[in-house]
Design brief:
The chain is mainly alpha-helical. The chain has 2 helices and 2 strands. It has a two-stranded antiparallel ribbon with strand order 1-2. The longest helix has 78 residues. The protein starts with 6 loop residues before the first helix and ends with a helix. Keywords: Coiled coil.
């Protein structure tokens, strides 16, 4: 295939890569572009991961707040039931004393 190239290009072929100098430069340029793109993607992934970690921390804090509120609500429900029973007991006591 090298015989199809002009003589000038055949002399410029790197025997290790079988590429002309121009082709090598093009390939190196493409590799550099790919490395830069990869670095950019890795940076974006790192930013996304940090954002997800921040969100996860916020969600965890909100879950803790909800759990505390749920505990308070449970205590209030227990207190309400206690008061309701006291009122019912008082109501039945007053009804029986009126009879």
């Amino acid at each position: 295939m090298n015989n199809l190239l002009p003589l000038q290009d055949q002399e410029n072929i790197n025997p290790t890569t079988c590429l002309t100098n121009k082709e090598e430069k093009d390939v190196l340029h493409l590799i550099t572009q790919l490395k830069n793109t990869l670095n950019s993607v890795q940076n974006s992934i790192t930013e996304i991961q940090q954002g997800l970690n921040d969100l996860s921390n916020k969600i965890q804090k909100q879950d803790e707040k909800v759990q505390k509120l749920d505990e308070k609500l449970q205590k209030l429900a227990e207190e309400l039931n206690r008061v309701k029973h006291m009122c019912q007991d008082n109501s039945s006591d007053s009804t029986s004393s009126n009879i």
